[in-house]
Amino acid sequence: MTETKKDNRIAALSIIVEDPEKTEELNQVIHEYSSYVIGRMGIPYREKKINIISLVLDAPQNVISTLSGKIGRIGGVTAKAAYAKYMSGE
Hints:
Layout: E1 9-17, H1 23-32, E2 37-45, E3 50-59, H2 61-72, E4 77-87
Antiparallel strand pairs: 1-3, 1-4, 2-3
């Protein structure tokens, strides 16, 4: 079955970057999925030497899971998704 826009989920993907050397690799992965990103906010927490990035996505659940997994496999970077209770087409 092919997925349609109505099968999409709205999700907030929280990303913590503890290794600034991985920023370029992270940005490349996010760019691959840019068509699903409806918003991005980055907060540098200089005192703790970490960066926090929030992505808001409108995508099929499997795409969000794949993106989160790819980001999570980058050393020094963690990601966690929180999903809205409804589908974006409802």
